[in-house]
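User: I'm new to structure prediction. If I give you an amino acid sequence, what do you actually give back? Let's try with this one:
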Amino acid sequence: MILHFIFVIKEEDREKRKFEFEYIKKMGQFYKVWIKEKFGRDYEIQCDELITTPRSILQRLDIPTFIRDHEQRGKDIYHFYLTHFKPLWTDCTCDGYNAENFGLVYWQPLQGNDTLFLAEKNCTSVSHVLLHEFLRLLGHKKFIQEVHDIWTKHLFEQLEFEQYGEDFQKTDDKPMFLTMDTSQLNL
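Assistant: Good question. You get back a string of structure tokens that encode the predicted 3D arrangement of the chain. For your 187 residues, that looks like this:
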């Protein structure tokens, strides 16, 4: 099985956001380990850039555009789009969207070279959408509500995110990657 992270980036921003794409490649390898550990599934990870050019308001990029792209690339591959815009419609409070073998989140642009910012703002949202998909695959009937209940605890009840270092192991030191807490799920 393949999990393909696609960094959707404006053509004019490509050079200044190279650091983010390098982080995405490392994050992809982290999620390979995390998915195997949490869900017992082995995925090949691919990372790619999708360069966008200016469009008219009538050709605005949104979820239907990426669903078509996903279908053209192959529905049997899990495509995960990291976009430079918030979707017009979302079913998640993390500015994300999930469907079978399809994920999309708003990737917040980096401020400086702070990997902690990327972990807090983006890696957590990626874990949110991934949890939807893997709980769905495991047959959890309330997979959307379960994830949203935990997300709410992270945001409003000071539930800590799970912290992982560069070696992909849990850490109490400064993390490289952060994910939603999965201890309350029956995995």
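You can read the tokens as a compact description of the fold. Here is one thing that stands out. Strands lie at 2-10, 44-52, 78-83, 96-99, 102-106, 162-164, 177-179.
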